[in-house]
Amino acid sequence: MSRTCVFIDGGYFQKVLEKDFERARIDFALIGPVLAQNYEPLLRTYYYNCPPHQSADPPPRERELVRNADRFYHALRKIPKLELRLGRLAFRGYSRDTGQPIFEQKRVDIQLAVDLLRLSYSRQIASAVVVAGDSDFIPVFAAAKDQAVRVVLYHSQNNPAHNELVEAADETIVFSPELIDQMLRT
Known about the structure:
Blueprint: E1 4-9, H1 10-20, H2 28-35, E2 42-49, H3 60-77, E3 82-86, E4 88-94, E5 101-106, H4 108-121, E6 127-131, H5 138-146, E7 150-155, H6 163-168, E8 171-174, H7 177-181
Parallel strand pairs: 1-2, 1-6, 2-3, 6-7, 7-8
Antiparallel strand pairs: 4-5
Helix pairs in contact: 4-5
């Protein structure tokens, strides 16, 4: 049976919602079914992100961010056919301009790539619907296509995907208000 998986770079999708759709409040149980609706039946949706940093003695705002993220991730874990994959933040020093700590996401892109490759090479999927913008995914798109997997890229008009990533996909779709409306919380 041919099936579809949806792979969502959560950091990228969050930027899309903030910049293009005024922080639209999405029902995350609808993302996979809506994005996969024109392809084979949905096997699973994978959501990749990184929890916020929490220092040893966090100020109230930092504690609130962590608490909100924990609630969000807990809610995602309850959604049928949705797998949450969390990376880690790595400390990279302090900004010379602001003195603020600099953190970098680790393991997020590679987790997405591993899942897409595993499902492609085991022939569990015929279509991979990906929400991302990073050119790091170009090699994994090529590898999936070598396994006859259709790669569909969803991206933003105002936060566009890297040009070479767009070229690497079989199909590209720009998020529209109508598409986001199908995913809104009711």
